[in-house]
Amino acid sequence: MFLNSVVLILQEILEAALLISVLLVFTRLRSIRPFWAIAAIASGAIGAYFFAHHMASISEWFDYVGQEVMNAFIQLAILFILAIFSAKYLGNTHSPHSSQMNRGFIVCTLLLVALSLTREGSEVFIYVGGALGDPSHVQPTLMGSVIGAGIGISVGVLIYYGLLGLPTKRISTSGLLLLSLIGGNMASQATLLLTQADWLPYSRILWDTSSWLPENSILGRLLYAIIGYEATPSLFQVFSYATGILLIFLCAQFSFRKQPPMLIKQTSTTTPQ
Amino acid sequence: MQNIVNRVAVLIVGMGFVFFGHYAVAGTPVIELTIKDHLFFPATIEIPANTKIKLLVINLDPTAEEFESYELNREKVILGNRKGVIFIGPLPPGEYPFFGEFYPKTAQGKVVVTDQ
Fold first, then answer.
1. Number of H helices, E strands in chain A
2. Mean pLDDT, chain A cut into blocks of 10 residues (273 residues total)
3. Which residues have a Cβ under 8 Å from the Cβ of B107 and sit 6 or more positions away?
């Protein structure tokens, strides 16, 4: 029970930890105070509680596949917001920012983290809530959960300082790379869930890497939790993963290219004041 | 002439009913999988190759369980005293283990796909 709790909570936390760390790095680059993270984590926790609380009835929607449809919807929403975020706020990290721009940045990051935690956290609530019903499970479950969460948060901190430790020029591009992987992961997971719900047709398995890196190995599970590694992905999954990555990349190019005009626009609006 | 057209029309519609009616009646085969005392019943599910299956998972325990299978690429939380549907396949012949992620020590099973 103890080890299972460690692994389960860690898996749920890793995906959100990566997202939060990368977003915090971009927050730092724009010299915005990271207070949004507290609000985002709090609203994510509240969202997760309500999602878990209503999961029983949500699961019965659409002829018992409501859970898949809702989760896929949240993942596609994350991908959509991530695309907007990349298009608007990734490029011009060193130019002066209007408070309106910063407000948009904060709203995006807040929504991203809250949505991600709502989905991942609801499973934690359901699991821990169930285990607490059995008195003999209470202590190992709680201990395991705390340790799992601790490791997950530590990985997040490592990613954060790892990124900030890079040469300044590389920080943005590495952050973008991670965000595009998150985008690809969201698209691929949503596709998988909609196939599981029979909303998308079956597509053939493209390759099998389970003999090299099994999904149930430690590294496999870690990679699955962070970037959605699949040993036997389907054609649609690979296609949507690639589309997700490409979408975030192209959106980011848009904001990187917009950089010089933004500077001109901002200086011209600030000089008359 | 009109008569022939009518007959052909009736024939086409009739064939349509036979074809699609058969499809609707046959539909996707449903297989029930029950969870009780953190165990799967039946622990082995046999299904034909290259066929899509609707797995109806019924959890009779008061606690939630997560149906998980790396080989099937499936993952779904089934809440206590509730049920859920998971579509699997079409699959090539082979063995596809699954387990309950919340109680993996006891909740183990496999889907055996046979070439028929």
1. 11, 0
2. 92 94 94 92 97 96 96 98 93 67 92 96 94 89 96 96 93 94 97 97 94 92 91 96 97 77 44 41
3. B35, B38, B39, B40, B65, B99, B100
| Domains contained in chain B, CATH given | 28-114 (2.60.40.420)
How far is residue B82's CA from residue A60's CA, in Å, rounded to a whole number? Answer: 9
Q: Is A183 exposed, middle or buried (0-12, 13-18, 19+ CB in 10 A)?
A: buried
| Length of chain B (residues) | 116
Find residue A112's DSSP bridge partners: none
Side-chain half-sphere exposure of B30, counting CA atoms within 13 A: 10
Residues facing residue B41 across a β-bridge:
B34
Taking only residues 60 to 79 of chain B, the set having a beta carbon closer than 8 angstroms to any beta carbon of chain A reads 62-64, 66, 70-71, 73-74, 76-79
Cβ–Cβ gap B104/A215 under 8 Å: no
| 3-class DSSP assignment, residue A235 | helix
**Cβ within 8 Å, pair A133-B63:** yes
Q: Which helix (H) or strand (E) holds B88?
A: strand B83-88
For chain A, which residues make up each domain, given as ranges? 2-201+237-270
